[in-house]
Amino acid sequence: MTGGAGFVGATLVRRLVASGCRVRVLDNLSTGDAAHLAGVDAELVKGDIRDAAALDDALAGMPAVIHLAAAGSVIGSVQDPGTNFEVNVLGTFRVLDAARRAGVGRVVLASTGGALIGDATPPVDERSLPKPISPYGASKLAGEGYAHAFAKTYGVRTVAIRFGNVYGPWCARKRGVVNVFFESIHSGAPLVVYGDGTSSRDYVHVDDIASALQLGLEKDVPGGTVLHAASGVETTVTELADLCRRAAGVPDHPIEYRPKRAGEVGRNFASFDLAHQLLGYAPTVTREVGIPRTWQWFQEEVFRD
Ligand SMILES: NC(=O)c1ccc[n+]([C@@H]2O[C@H](COP(=O)([O-])OP(=O)(O)OC[C@H]3O[C@@H](n4cnc5c(N)ncnc54)[C@H](O)[C@@H]3O)[C@@H](O)[C@H]2O)c1
Questions:
Q1: Quick one: average pLDDT of 170-175?
Q2: Which atom of ligand 1 is nearest to the CA of 111?
């Protein structure tokens, strides 16, 4: 698993190990942390996905690859599109090329719904025309392109899974809106909302994303398949702020509105019908359950000092 020491990886590695898989993680620990895998019976190799030799070593004897490693920030990609390109496009190419050389049976890739498709009328699905409005979205589309091409040209059985906005345990090192809101509440700062609060996202719990990725590994879908794994529910940023404030028991915590930021889509949520049909994927954690549970995790693991 590339990027397995990150937020999504922390849940997914545990799940795979618990189901009897042997897991080797390749991670450069740029945004991830070895502590995310503390006490987990998985092998952690420090290395970079841009390094073909490191990939050859890491993939030796592996029947499948889950490719999570990425420069994962939309805003980061606007500030530094070159690094985003190198990690997400060149890095993904190198992972696919190493998988081809190693004869790996299945490659599951982490992709994204909102940033890749851009401003479209939701719900988006696999037939929506991708028109990325950020370098991050473009880089993920390029990765999907290579995955499809490697499936058709070399028979690498790729499946790209486009996530909604993932939240849940181990997200504390990310700059995602849920943890930023929780940190603001904890420190007494106002919740900062960019735009007028009507922009929306599809918030999906990391347990559901881990299920989708595991199903992508196990189910026999044709190489080159692209699927959306999402909650299917549209949540505006104002609604999310309310969910976070209520979860923390501070329903009147102040909100500060600032101008909308470049590269961010307006409305987004996705249909997961195809993932349901092909993988049997269905989200199980509603936002009403998942947000309070995540606040609880922050209380126990992040804000305890
Ligand atoms: N979190 C979300 O809301 C979300 C939404 C859509 C898609 N995704 C995708 O899911 C995947 C996992 O995201 P995450 O939220 O866990 O992010 P994360 O930043 O927590 O995890 C990424 C991991 O990749 C590692 N990494 C980064 N660059 C690397 C490199 N060059 N070589 C080796 N390792 C490297 C990091 O150290 C980190 O452990 C990414 O591909 C991301 O684009 C995430």
A1: 88
A2: 7
Task: Determine the residue type at 65.
Answer: V
pLDDT digits (tens, 9 = 90+) for 227-256: 999 999 999 999 999 999 999 999 999 999
Helix (H) or strand (E) holding 236, with range, is strand 235-236
What domains are there in the chain, each with its CATH number?
A: 7-167+203-232+266-285 (3.40.50.720)
d(CA 303, CA 54): 37
Let me know: does 114 contact 201? Beta carbons within 8 Å: yes
Mean pLDDT on 13-31: 98
194 a catalytic residue: no
Half-sphere exposure of 44 (CA within 13 A, CB side): 22
Alpha carbon of 197 to those of 149, 191, 200, 203, 204: distances in Å?
39, 11, 8, 15, 19
Q: Residue 256: is it exposed, middle or buried by C-beta count within 10 angstroms (0-12/13-18/19+)?
A: exposed
State pTM to two decimals: 0.97
pLDDT, tens digit, 9 for 90 and up, residues 89-110: 999 999 999 999 999 989 999 9
Mean pLDDT of 261-276: 92
Instruction: Report pLDDT for 174.
Output: 85
72 within ligand 1 shell (Cβ under 6 A): yes
What does the pLDDT read at residue 195? 94
Q: Say how many Å lie between the CA of residue 80 and the centre of ligand 1.
A: 16
- Ligand 1 geometric centre to CA of 224 (Å): 21
Rounded to 5°, angle at Cα 122 from 118 and 124: 70
What is the separation of C-alpha 70 from the centre of its chain, rounded to a whole number of angstroms? Answer: 9
The radius of gyration of the chain from alpha carbons, rounded to an integer in Å, stands at: 18
Which is nearest to 44 in space by CA: 8, 86, 13, 67?
13
